[in-house]
Design brief:
Blueprint: H1 21-27, H2 29-48, H3 61-72, H4 76-89, H5 92-105, H6 123-160, E1 165-170, E2 173-179, H7 180-198, E3 204-205, H8 215-220, H9 226-236, E4 240-241, H10 252-281, E5 284-286, H11 305-327, H12 338-343, H13 346-366, E6 367-369, H14 371-379, H15 386-395, H16 401-411, H17 418-425, H18 430-437, H19 448-454
Parallel strand pairs: 3-4
Antiparallel strand pairs: 1-2, 5-6
């Protein structure tokens, strides 16, 4: 039966397959095979460049082109051939070696180099570098563009709402006014920190044999500086070299990477919940999309489904990433195989993040400030100005200033009319009274507008 999105077990390959299409070229079984073929070919080319390795002469331009084409033109038929070999021998990496030997043996002039395919390598030499290339590719072509797009959309929202004063809520209760722009700017600052941090995380790789000591390399060619060769090879792939490992690269960098992505995702969960709340209050209205249905029974509803979808998938992604981040750096002695099956789920963990990022972006572009609702809510809570009043009283050393205003609030519902009466009774200079009389909830915004401007 041909697999389609309706038959997929995971939503990543089913319901959300369009959002994660790009990831198939990075994290699928096919992609993993292609990355490993690339590493094997590049290691063969590196060996040919070593002068002391007389049995493998330096490849000429034509030979290099032939070898490069093996991975550059790698296709699904090649992948099927590798899987066919694996089915017989029950070893995935060895299957790639046999595939390459068979492919190269058909080229007469390359017969002599066949035994240098996978020379002195343990499977993990190939696999760890392939995963490193996967993650490096993902960060460049998927993760960073999505993060930057989200931040860019938030900047537009923050800028367009920088003068929109609104009632803040602490503990869910009416509190000191702020601006919507400043509240969005808080998230921009937090997300930017994670963006800057992820760019500093080094993607590491190793090429040092069975337990990290170049044992076989040194026996075969004792006069070659294998440490130098290893460092150069890993760096040539665009990966930072890890000089100290067991059989496996210890995956600390993957833990660091996933920790940073998880923090970014947590900030987005916070954002999604806040915007969900603002939509619930009516502060944001959502654009109506023609023919879209919000509820199966309530025709008037437009549910904040993009933010709800994002929250759920961000949580799923973080749960898997947190497990992977804790599991991978732990391996018994020089290695156990428990990391292997976990590593195959990198795309699953990151796939849920990509689905979430798409939802967040769509959601942000659908919301619009509902000025009337925001301003009405603000004008219903003049009691918030008593914070400013009691601070002025404190400045002039009036004892129990907080308690005095608290009593006024308990006796009367503070509004635009009776607040003037309360101000007149305050034992402060007339100039301070006059200043307080001109103060309204809409003007009591502190430096929120300036702080918002600074984020740009």
């Amino acid at each position: 039966m041909k697999l389609n999105d309706l038959m997929a077990i995971s939503p990543i390959d089913g319901r959300y397959c369009k959002q994660t299409l790009l990831l198939k070229e990075i994290f699928s079984e096919y992609a993993f095979l292609k990355f490993r073929v690339k590493v094997e070919i590049n290691w063969l080319k590196k060996l040919s460049s070593i002068n002391e390795l007389k049995e493998l002469p330096l490849f000429d331009k034509k030979t290099t082109e032939i070898l490069n084409e093996i991975y550059e033109k790698f296709n699904k038929e090649d992948a099927y051939q590798i899987k066919k070999i694996e089915k017989k021998i029950k070893h995935d990496t060895k299957a790639i070696e046999y595939f390459l030997k068979k492919k190269i043996s058909k080229i007469k002039k390359l017969d002599s180099i066949i035994e240098f395919i996978h020379f002195s390598c343990t499977s993990e030499d190939i696999n760890n570098l392939s995963y490193a290339l996967m993650l490096k590719t993902f960060i460049k072509i998927s993760l960073l563009p999505n993060w930057e797009k989200i931040i860019s959309l938030l900047k537009k929202l923050s800028f367009s709402s920088k003068n929109q004063v609104m009632l803040s809520r602490t503990h869910g209760q009416p509190a000191t006014p702020t601006t919507m722009g400043k509240e969005i700017a808080n998230f921009i600052f937090r997300l930017n920190r994670q963006l800057n941090q992820i760019k500093k995380i080094e993607i590491l790789g190793k090429m040092n044999g069975t337990v990290g000591n170049y044992n076989a390399n040194l026996v075969a060619y004792p006069n070659i500086d294998w440490i130098k060769v290893s460092r150069e090879f890993v760096n040539q792939l665009g990966i930072e070299w890890n000089p100290y490992t067991t059989q496996i690269e210890p995956h600390d960098y993957i833990s660091e990477l996933f920790s940073c992505i998880s923090r970014f995702n947590l900030i987005l969960i916070d954002l999604a919940r806040d915007i969900w709340g603002y939509i619930s209050l009516g502060y944001f209205s959502q654009k109506k999309i023609l023919k879209e249905i919000g509820s199966s029974i309530m025709p008037y509803k437009i549910n904040p489904i993009n933010f709800e979808n994002a929250e759920g998938n961000l949580g799923l992604s973080n749960a898997i990433m947190n497990f992977i981040g804790e599991k991978l750096p732990v391996s018994r002695w020089q290695r156990d195989l428990s990391d292997s099956t976990v590593l195959r789920n990198l795309g699953v963990a990151l796939g849920y993040s990509i689905v979430s990022y798409t939802s967040i972006q769509t959601g942000i572009q659908k919301i619009k400030i509902n000025k009337k609702v925001v301003e009405k809510d603000l004008n219903n809570h003049w009691e918030i100005l008593t914070e400013a009043m009691q601070t002025i009283l404190r400045r002039y050393g009036i004892k129990n200033s907080y308690e005095k205003l608290k009593k006024e609030i308990e006796k009367n519902k503070i509004n635009s009319k009776n607040i003037i009466y309360i101000i007149e009774k305050l034992p402060i200079p007339e100039k301070e009274k006059n200043k307080l009389k001109t103060l309204t909830p809409n003007k009591y915004v502190g430096l929120s507008i300036e702080l918002n401007d600074r984020i740009f």
